[in-house]
Structures are given as structure tokens and as C-alpha cells.
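Ticket reopened. Same input as before:
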Amino acid sequence: MADAMLEIRGLEIRYAGVPAVRGISFEVGRGEVVGLVGPNGAGKSSTLLAIMGMVEPHAGDVLVDGRSLVGSSTEEIVRGGVSLVPEGRRIFPELTVDENLRLGLQGRRSRDGAEEDVEQAAALFPVVREARDRPAGVLSGGQQQQLAIARSLVAQPSVLLLDEPSLGLAPKVVEDVFAALAEIRGRGVTILLVEQRAQFAVGFADRTHVLANGQLRLTLTPADAGDTDKMAAAYFGH
Amino acid sequence: MRRLGSASQLVAPVALLALVGLAGSFTSRSVQFQFRFALVMATIVIALYVFVRNSGVVSFGHVSFVAVGAFAAGLTTVPEALKLSLSPDLFPIIASAEVGNAMSLGLAAAVGGLFAFLVGVALMRLSGLAAGIATFAVLVITNNVLRNWEAIGPGARTLSLVPETTSFMQGTVGVIAVAILAFLYQRSRWGRVLRASSEDPYAAQGSGVNIYRQRLVAFTLSGALAGFAGGLFVHLLGSITTQQVYLDLAFLTLAMLVIGGVGSLWGAVVGALLVSGVNSLLLSAEDGIGLGFVDLDVPTGTRLVTLGAVMALIMLFRPTGITGGREIRLPGLR
Amino acid sequence: MDALQTIIDAIALGSVYALVAMGIGLVFGVMRLVNFAHGELITFGAYALVLTNHLPLVVGIVVCFATVIGLSLAMEVAYRPLRTSPPTTMLVTTFAVSFLLQAVALLAFGARGQNANVLEKLNTAVSIGDLRVRWVTLVSIAVGAVLLSGTALILRRTDIGLQMRAAAMDFRTAQLLGVRATTVIRFAFVLAGVLAACATVLLVVSRPLVTPGYGFQLVIPALVGVVVGGLDRLTSATLGGFAVGFAASVLGDVLPADGRVFLDTALFLLVIVVLLVRPGGLFTRSRAAWERV
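Engineering reply: fixed in the latest deploy. New output:
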């Protein structure tokens, strides 16, 4: 598709010879939200890491806006407009909230507009301003998740990757997080969302792929969110 | 791992060592020393290999065991009068001890092994970076004590008049014996269990393996072999000082193991012999030699620079060593 | 008053060791690499001062700084293949580089010591009350304080400092955020070089005889301090370096001549004890490097 912002083609990932991702292909169109769900060990995180250049694919290609990312360094990929909110948030607990946010600015292509982007992130995620000088480690899980997303946002991404944003969070908190994601989507950011708790992704994304045992099995739409059989398939990867 | 147990693993190194021993005996007197030196170096390197390869832990301190072995063998084969003239405060038991050649070598091995056991009891819980630093500390401490405690040895003075009994026969038989022992250990159940544990500590502990104890066994054995090598060393040189069994030797033997390849006995032997050869060549070149068609005369100190450069380059670009296979590199994260 | 004299001297030596320890700690933080060859920065810096002996002092110091920082940057480049290596490979490699550089120094300058007569005036003493304190002692303390707090400021207040701290805490996540690994590592090496260069100048004033082993002899106790203090955190590493310098100076003054010879033994026994007793406490983060069985 000519309008694809993010394109995965025949991606194969192996760890010490053992295949984790066995040739998957999908696209995320400009401004779309695509979900990737499946059981543990299915290869979801590996896919994200491959996009970010942290893991070298055994075969296949990753393209953003038509440009291949494979072989580029993570630094270049981030500056090219791709940002990952990692699994488990991975904020720096000993740095202050503000310092954590400032780190995100390192991924920008240029400093221009940094202040405005920080303001916008603060508007979406008030914790960024409220707790700015406190060590990030004292924040709750939900607040840390907000900080992690804010941190990725200020890097000016055109593609935002999220690895299990609902991990360890209560349903109400997850709602807030997804509300913020909806706003981000509204700004035209392309989103790839990996989730183990499939219901969050399926209801939110334009479409959701089910990844099981390294392969894409199924594609769901928000309409399928109420279909228990299909949801079970999503969970157990049939 | 099965590779290390097959008999072919032993044949090549032993054959090479025997060849070197044999060929060396036909060279001129001055060169003969270099050959015997290479054989003794190989003994030390094999001792080091026994521990490093099987446990996956790098020890910077093995030369300590060479040192105590050398001094034990040296002190028990020189006349009492000489010992007392060097260190009047020497313990009487050391001063009066006088044994034959074979006994001195056995004693060297025993002292090396015992010392290694005691050190190992304390240190074998450590891995990786901590073990490297701790074993380096042992090296410094041993040197410091040997150099200053005059009740146990000649201190900073040279212990000379040690009988030079490390002939080609003794050197070759000695190193081959050590190689065989190294092989038997790595092929034994203990050796295999330790190697498996070093590759996957969690699985090993889950199967009830006591890694600490296995490491201690390897460390003690390797200490005994290093002590024995120390005995051969002192009987080769006819004298010994603490500086000869300290940082330079530690670096040299580690370099030999790394350059040859820490993964196999073959690597250890090749590294030792090759580096000894180049070392000797450059040593002569520093004095100026004619190699038939070319005259080689390099400034003093080139030898060390070359050795250091080669080791650094190997570590950076081919950590598995000259003989190295892809899987077996310098152990890590253990 | 003797005691006060001893303490002041000890603080001065401690400050110099702290500069060296901080340099080692900075590089370790961003690369998880203990640079055994850090001492050779000092050795070559000292030789630079020897060679520029006859030139104006400013020139000498500039050349010294240039040499040390240049060599540090060269090490950064040389160590690049090690970035993904296990800690023991790193240790052995830096050991090899240290040996190589010492051998080069031996080849270039010979084994006999050479004099770098730098700032000899600082060796004169000034009377403060009942004390006679050498100028170099006061300068060492002052320079040490300035540099240590300066470095701390850089780390806390600048962007590059923030990136360095983040890289030391969680290198992978820092990379994911776009922190430039090479820039951060290079900056650490430059900073370590600056600290080492300052330490060199201060050292050479009190110990003008430079030999190929000059820096190595110093870095071993400094390394002891870093390990004892706590490799994982910059403050504890620096404090450890200070403590070793302080202790070495005090013991040097206080011990009788025959007790002093076993100083190395005492120091290294301490290292072993610390490694055995508090691997979890002192080195909380890099559990992989400090695994016990």
C-alpha cells in the first residue's frame, strides 16, 4: 500500500538459531492504529525490537515511510521518527520526572519546537508537571506509564510503538492511558500497539493481528471485541 | 563438549610437545635453553587452561602457584648453608630441608595444590569481574609476602645454585604428563559437570550441582599443576627471584593461552609454543642475529611491545584465539 | 600538630586518587569496562611533562593535557569492539593494553627514570600557624575539590551529563530513547582524560621521577579504592579512591619502616574481603558481573 507508514515484510527473527518470528508481514497506514496480540513468547516484543534496530532480523525488511530501517542504528531510527514505549515502562527511577522527560528530547531530529511539544505532553499527562522534581521511582504504575509515553512523545515520533502499556495496571488506569492514546492518534501519529491483554487492543485499534508461535494467524476488528470465540483465539493463538 | 573428551584432543598436543622436545635436543646449546623454556611455559599454560576452560572464570593469580612451587622446589634442593646466608631468619624446617630432584617436584606440586586449595576456599564463590580482581589481588599478595617475609624464603634476593635438572627428557615428560592429567580431568565427570555449569549456572544449580565445590576441585588441580611447573621452572633457570614469577610471567602466560585459544588443550599448547618461539626470536633479535639471508636487529623492548600488541589485537578481533572455534571464546558473565 | 599535618597530606593524596578513581568510574558507568590501562594515561602524561621540561610551563601543561586526552580518545576507539563483550574479556583486554603501553613506554624512554621538573616552586612550604604545608598539598586539595564538584555539576546540570547518568543506569533504554552511545562514551573518556591529566600534573610535582610503570603503580591502589568503594556508583567509586589515597598516606606516615612493606598485602586483603562480604551491598546493579554461586 503506497500510503503505508510502517511496513513489515517477511520478518524473520532468530535467537541463537531458534526462530522467534517466522516470516510475518503487515502494514500500518498513516495515522492508523494497529494492534498486535498473542500469547507470551509469540514474538511480539521481538518484532518491536527489530523495528527499533535493537535486534537484527534474520530475514525480511522493516520500512518506515518507504525507507528501510534494517541495518540502521537505533539512534538513527529514533531520529527518523520511530519511538518505542518499552515493556515495563523502563523509566529511570533515580532521575526526576523532569529529567526522564528531558531524556526523551534526545531523540528529536532538531530542538525546534521542543518546548511546545513538552507543553502538549504535559497537557495530556499532568503528572509530568505535577511531579516534575520528584524521583520517577515514587510514581505509581499508571503515572509511570504516562511518563513513559510522554517521554516518547516529545521525541517527535511519526510512528509510536507501545509494548504492553496495560501491563500491571488496573482497568480504570488503563482506560485513562488509552484515552490519552486516542488523543495522540487524533494528532495523526501512527501507532503499533502490542498487548497481551487482547481486549484492550482489539477495541481500540483499527485492526488487530494475532501473532502466535512466530506467525500471524488472524486479523480482528473492533467489531470482533464482543465475539468470545474470536477473542479466545486471540488469547490462545489458534 | 563431547569434543573435549575424545582422544583425538590429546593426540595432537602431545605429539607436538614430543616433537618440540625431540627437535630441540638437536639444536645448539644456546637454542636448547629456549626450547626447554618453551616446554616449561607450556606446562604453566596448560595448568592455567585447566581452570579457565572448565570453570569459565579467568584467574590472574595462577602465577602465585608457580611461584610457591618454584620456591618450594628451589629451597629444598640447595645447601642449608646457602639458605641461611641469604636469610638468617629462615624457619629451621625450611633451612634444613633437602630433598632429591623428583621429591622437589612432587613437593612443588603439593605446595601449589595446597595453596590453591586454601585460596580457592575463599574465592571460588566469585565469578567474572570479581574473580578477576580477587585473583589479581592474590598475585600481588603472594609476591608481596614472598618478597618481604624472610622467614620463608630469600625475600628479595636471588636464590641461586639450584640444580639445573630440567633436561629435555624431564621437560618433555613433565609437560606431557601435565597435558594428560589436564585431558583426563576435562574428560572426567567432574570436568564435564563444571563446564556445563559454567555455560548454564541456573540449570546446573537446579540439578543439584555444587558449582563452588567443582570449581574448587579444578582450581586445586590447576594449582598443583602450576606448582609442578614452578618446580620445573626453577630447575630450568638454576635460580629464582620473586620478580621472575610475578606480573611479567602472569601476563606472558595469559597471553599465550589467549593467543593460542582458550577453548582447547591444543590451543593452550599452540599458544605457549608459538609465543615462546616468537618471544625467543625477538629476544635474540634484540641482541642482533643473522637469520641467514637477513640480519635482524631491533631495539630492546620491541619484544614486549610486539607481545602486548598481538595479545591486544587478538582480544579485540579474534577472542577465540588462533586455533579458536566460534563457540568457545574467553568466558564471560559467569 | 603532627596529626593535623598528616591529615592534610592525606587529604591531598586522597584528592589526587579521587580524580583517578572518578575517571575509572565514569568509563565504567557508560561501558561497564574497568580500564586497567587508565594508569598509562598518567604515565604518558608524565612523560609529556618530561619532554617539555625546557619549555614554558604553560606549553608543558597543554601538551600533557593533549597527550592524555588524545590517548584516552584512542582507547575509546580501540575498545569499541568490546562493547558487547563479557566483563572478563574486557578485563583481559585492558590488561593487555596496559601491558602494551608500558612496553611502549619502556621502548621509547628506557627503564631508568626521567625527571619532569614541573612547578618545583610548589614543593616549597608555607607556614600556617604551627604547620609547614607544601604549596602542592594545598593546590591538590583545591584542584581536587574544584574538579570533583565541576564534574558533578556537569553530570547534574547538562544534557550530556544527563545522558551519561542515564546510560550508566540503563544503557539499553537510553539507546531506545535516542541517546547517542558513541557520543556519551566518548565524552566519558574525554572527561576521564581531563581528570587524569590534572592528577598527573599534581603527582609529578611531588614525584618527579617518571618510569614506565609510573601510572600502573598508581592505578592499582586506585582500582582497589574503586572496587572497595563500590564500582557501580560514581560517588562511591570516587569516595573509595579518596579513601585509599588517604589511608595510604596516613599509613605511610604512621607505620614503621618494616611494617610499610606489607601495605600492598593489607590493601589487597581488604579488596578480597570486600568482594566476598559485600558483593550485593556495594555492587547492587550489575548482578551479572558480580554473580556468586
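Chain B touches chain C through 54 residues (CB under 8 Å). The mean pLDDT of chain B is 86. Please confirm and we'll close it.
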